[in-house]
Amino acid sequence: MSKANRFVSIGIPFYNNEDYLTFAIQSVINQSHQDWELILINDGSSDSSLEIAQYFVSIDSRVRVISDGLNKKLPARLNQLIDESKYKYIARMDADDIMHPERLEKQLSFLETNKCYDLVSTGLVSIDNNNKVKGYRKVGSLYDDFSSIRTSYPIVHPSVMGRRSWFERNRYSEEYPRAEDFELWTRAISKSDFKMAVLPELLLYYREEGNINKRKMIESYNDLLKIYKKYNLKEYLLKIKIKMKAKIFIVNILYHLGQLQKLADRRNLKFKNREDLLVHQGFLDRLVKKVR
């Protein structure tokens, strides 16, 4: 791999993430692959998130902060990341998630070795607000069947790394702020420009237990319905409408029962091998110890 191709632009948009932003940034600094720039984009935070980001700028020249005081929402900030990135590859993550220490190394190696793909995603380890492992989600083996538009794709958006050239010709739509990733994948498939591989490796620690929000979930379902209509999925539309209304009903019921977290728990698998769980928990514990 040439030196020029080794560099990755990493983007973390953040909005009032003071409780978790330090963990996210430290997980980037801890990567086995060290040739990167980290772009931290403030989306109008009113807590101490900006100060946390500026601290890391002061101690690491590879980190920079963009802050205009505005709240433009995630899709606009992801497009800003594309514009601001310097390097051939772009990786993103959410401000409350954590990278596995070998994430960049493994994804970069895959894209450099497999020129036929533009994008690569991975599996995730679900964690709670105390950085404890709760379960995982992944494909059984490498998955790349994106030949047609579907109602869902096994892609973990904050785990995606891709070629900047792909993102430059496939920008995020700001029309669907709660489902911008699904709209992007669907649009790219409709243009026959979606060469994505989903790896079974668990390379992202995804914070969801204790972080489920009723309003955001319902807004996501409504955005998904709009996207299905836009891309003319007529054969699915009636079934989808019924399914979405049922989901919204269930969300409301579980919310009033204080059981909304069960929706996330149902999606996750449990580690059968305790040693695998302990390996992932060990990564997290060492990160927490370093931060504190």
Helix content: 40-55%
CA-based shape: globular
Q: Kindly, what is the distance between the CA atoms of the first and last residues, rounded to a whole number of angstroms?
A: 36 Å
Number of domains: 2
Mean pLDDT: 93
Q: In terms of per-residue confidence, which ranges show pLDDT below 50 for 5 or more consecutive residues? A: none
CATH class of the largest domain: Alpha Beta
Write down the CATH topology of the largest domain.
Answer: Spore Coat Polysaccharide Biosynthesis Protein SpsA, Chain A
The fraction of residues in strands falls at: 15-25%
Provide the CATH architecture of the largest domain: Alpha-Beta Complex
Number of continuous helical runs: 10
Structural class: alpha/beta
Count the beta strands.
Answer: 9
- Radius of gyration, in angstroms, nearest whole number: 19 Å
Largest sheet: 9 strands, mixed
> What do we call the CATH homologous superfamily of the largest domain?
Spore Coat Polysaccharide Biosynthesis Protein SpsA, Chain A
What is the string of helix and strand elements?
Answer: EHEHEHEEHEEEHHEHHHH
List the helices and strands and how they pair.
Elements lengths: L7 E7 L6 H9 L6 E7 L6 H11 L3 E5 L6 H11 L4 E4 L5 E2 L3 H11 L5 E10 L4 E5 L23 E3 H6 L10 H11 L5 E14 L4 H17 L3 H24 L4 H6 L6 H18 L1
Parallel strand pairs: 1-2, 1-4, 2-3, 6-9
Antiparallel strand pairs: 4-8, 5-9, 6-7, 6-8
Helix pairs in contact: 1-10, 7-8
